[in-house]
């Protein structure tokens, strides 16, 4: 019998060896082997000028990055979306000629996609991360895309560094860990060695990075854009989305638990709210700066790592967006939608923000590979509501059937049509801005302050929010293996606050910085979520009930519902529970299928006939909610249970012993959290 040779895995390994490379201690080159003298800055016309198409290195680097993943998005892979409409409050003709911003009686259809940034498509939704907030307006002049985040600033100042940032925050390539998390060495190594990230990191370590709901999350256009009116006058503008329900967050332990209990928590919340008719609403706000005031601030208004303090440049609320229809098919709509900051309409233009300039290239390039070619605009979710005509033909996924022989401009066979339209007739014309400067790879000196606004953010936080930021840094850096990286980050954020840096250093065993914080000279109350709107609307309350409950309970539940609160019954089984008066309540959840982290408040009712196991399950719900600073209510037997557990006399705990139980419980729910509660 002929002896069989084993599968020669070693030879296969040897085949692979020729493709392996160690980039350490090597010169940086293009993919063609050209040595590079600069990898920090894209090529611009002057230090504050626009990015040039001539920049072959930027285009190669960004093109490669845009095509690294198939088929899901490289970033923002985990997303969910909904349809809606936008209504203007008053005409903005003073600032822009965009038609959808002229007439308050016109409703503009919109499609909004929310997303995490770092995780893959199957990752959990309540991870610590920035969130995408992208809005497509289907206007009569064409599609306008406002492609933003829930944080008003970004990690980097120049688009050429975007691949580096995402490579650093994604799972480390040697072991593909961790998923959807920034608590690892490469991300924090990037932060420590790219200190322009300081401001965004402060936001990411704050409660803003773990929103309670997509319905309770702000949105920001991030970049500085221009509005141009019919007379050709321009203003610099930043865009904001302000949630009508206020801006609210989870607590970290709660967010981690939800990731295991319900990784679809945010999309489920959005879907169910729309199905229930509790339509999410956001007001559109704009900050306006006259062109002649461009240089009057102590920061560069084109720097994407800087915000415009609302106390200095007020936000004017100009309209409301309502999301009122869920998608019919997630793939066809949510996954195939293609956003692009370069999808604009007359009256909206760009600035020379170098991060924005790079995005104007990157987004189209990304769609080409993700959606299979140049005709992604013909997919139903991307098609404009107005007709489109041009000489572009063929390609993957072509649906338009163009008639006639002409597919070029200028021509006589079709009377030179389709023809350009003058600006006076609605044709788009770029704002004319004088640009002078040497072709340079450089950054303006005005972009080099990396810490003042990070300090402003810290100074603007409440004591509770500061505690959460310290805990977030301690958790994230506690996961970092490199002692050197840990120390570098501590030293870096001593430039923001020595109080912050010292407490984090103590938590992770690093050397604390010397000195003390300088006296606070400026803060921005608008940055603190303590100042946000607090309403009970759409808050979910777990109502823990057993058979033989009091006959007063249905009346309490009706009072809650009248305030827009959503009580949901939790019990041992899904069989209806019956009251002493013969009334019945439908049970939506059991102790097995539910958890207190999935609710905004807990209401313990119980009953005298409930057994010891039921009592323990109810107290587990209440204790966890208590530790997460949530409101807790109790009536009937539940009052005795809370008293026995020592939970009855803390802030935000309301019992039936008060004559105003329902009103006081609603007030407690409106407060969102009760941070003055003593939790051991």
Explain what the structure shows.
This protein is an alpha+beta fold and 680 residues long. The protein folds into three domains: 43-197 and 207-378, Catalase HpII,  Chain A, domain 1, CATH 2.40.180; 466-521, Hemocyanin, N-terminal domain (Up-down Bundle); 534-670, Rossmann fold (3-Layer(aba) Sandwich), CATH 3.40.50.880. The protein has helices at 9-17, 56-66, 162-169, 185-193, 198-204, 252-261, 265-275, 330-335, 354-370, 452-460, 463-478, 483-493, 498-508, 553-562, 612-627, 637-645, 661-670; strands at residues 43-45, 79-88, 107-116, 131-139, 142-149, 219-220, 225-228, 234-243, 281-290, 316-326, 348-350, 439-441, 540-545, 566-571, 577-578, 584-585, 589-590, 601-606, 632-634, 653-655. Strands 2, 3, 4, 5, 6, 7, 8, 9, 10 and 11 form a ten-stranded antiparallel sheet that branches. α16 links the parallel β19 and β20. α2 packs across α9 (354-370), α5 packs parallel to α10 and α12 (483-493) packs antiparallel against α13. It is globular and about 90 Å long. It holds the Pfam family Catalase-rel. There is a cross-link at residues 340-363 (3'-histidyl-3-tyrosine (His-Tyr)). Decomposes hydrogen peroxide into water and oxygen; serves to protect cells from the toxic effects of hydrogen peroxide. Residues 1-25, 510-532 are annotated as: Disordered.
């Amino acid at each position: 019998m002929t002896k069989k040779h084993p599968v020669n895995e070693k030879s296969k390994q040897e085949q692979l060896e020729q493709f392996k490379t160690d980039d350490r201690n090597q010169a940086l080159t293009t993919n063609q082997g050209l040595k590079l003298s600069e990898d920090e800055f894209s090529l611009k016309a002057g230090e504050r000028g626009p990015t040039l198409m001539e920049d072959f290195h930027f285009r190669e680097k960004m093109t490669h990055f845009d095509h690294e993943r198939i088929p899901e998005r490289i970033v923002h892979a985990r997303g969910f979306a909904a349809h809606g409409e936008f209504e203007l409050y008053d005409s903005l003709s003073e600032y822009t000629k965009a038609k959808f911003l002229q007439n308050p009686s016109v409703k503009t259809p919109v499609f909004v996609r929310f997303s995490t940034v770092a995780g893959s498509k199957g990752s959990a939704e309540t991870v610590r991360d920035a969130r995408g907030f992208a809005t497509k307006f289907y206007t009569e002049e064409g599609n306008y895309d406002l492609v933003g985040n829930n944080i008003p600033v970004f990690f980097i100042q120049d688009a050429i560094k975007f691949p580096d940032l995402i490579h650093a925050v994604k799972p480390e390539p040697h072991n593909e860990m961790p998923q959807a998390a920034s608590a690892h060495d490469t991300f924090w190594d990037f932060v420590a060695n790219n200190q322009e990230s300081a401001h965004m990191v402060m936001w990411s370590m704050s409660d803003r990075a773990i929103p309670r709901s997509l319905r309770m999350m702000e949105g920001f256009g991030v970049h500085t854009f221009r509005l141009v009116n019919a007379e050709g006058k321009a203003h610099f503008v930043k865009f904001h989305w302000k949630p009508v329900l206020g801006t609210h967050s989870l607590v970290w332990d709660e967010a981690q638990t939800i990731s295991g209990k319900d990784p679809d928590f945010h999309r489920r919340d959005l879907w169910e709210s729309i199905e229930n008719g509790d339509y999410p609403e956001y007001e559109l706000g704009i900050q306006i700066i006259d062109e002649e005031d461009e240089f009057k601030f102590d920061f560069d208004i084109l720097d994407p790592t800087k915000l415009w303090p609302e106390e200095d440049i007020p936000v004017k609320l100009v309209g409301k967006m309502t999301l009122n229809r869920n998608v019919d098919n997630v793939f066809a709509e949510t996954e195939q939608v293609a956003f692009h900051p370069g999808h604009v309409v007359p009256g909206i233009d760009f600035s020379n923000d170098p991060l924005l300039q790079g995005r104007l290239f990157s987004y189209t390039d990304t769609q080409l590979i993700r959606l299979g070619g140049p005709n992604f605009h013909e997919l139903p979710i991307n098609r404009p509501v107005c007709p489109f005509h041009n000489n572009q033909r063929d390609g993957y996924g072509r649906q338009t059937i163009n008639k006639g022989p002409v597919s070029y401009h200028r021509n006589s066979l079709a009377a030179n049509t389709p023809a350009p339209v003058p600006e006076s007739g609605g044709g788009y014309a770029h704002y004319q801005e004088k640009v002078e400067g040497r072709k340079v790879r450089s950054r303006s000196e005005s972009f080099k302050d990396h810490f003042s606004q990070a300090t402003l953010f810290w100074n603007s936080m409440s004591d509770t929010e500061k505690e959460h930021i310290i805990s977030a840094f301690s958790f994230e850096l506690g996961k970092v293996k490199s002692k050197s990286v840990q120390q570098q980050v501590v030293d870096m954020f001593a430039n923001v606050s020595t109080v912050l840096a010292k407490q984090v250093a103590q938590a992770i065993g690093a050397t604390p910085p010397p000195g003390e914080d300088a006296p606070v000279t400026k803060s921005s109350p608008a940055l603190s979520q303590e100042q946000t709107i607090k309403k009970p609307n759409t808050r979910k309350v777990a109502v823990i009930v057993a058979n033989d409950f009091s006959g007063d309970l249905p009346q309490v539940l009706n009072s809650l519902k009248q305030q827009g609160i959503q009580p949901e019954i939790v019990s041992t089984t899904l069989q209806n529970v019956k009251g002493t008066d013969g009334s019945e309540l439908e049970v939506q959840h059991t102790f097995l299928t539910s958890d207190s982290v999935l609710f905004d408040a807990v209401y313990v009712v119980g009953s005298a006939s409930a057994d010891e196991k039921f009592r323990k399950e109810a107290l587990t719900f209440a204790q966890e909610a208590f530790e997460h600073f949530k409101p807790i209510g109790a009536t009937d037997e539940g009052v005795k249970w809370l008293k026995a557990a020592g939970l009855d006399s803390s802030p935000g705990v309301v019992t039936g012993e008060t004559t105003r139980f329902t009103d006081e419980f609603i007030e407690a729910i409106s407060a969102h959290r009760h941070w003055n509660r003593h939790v051991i």
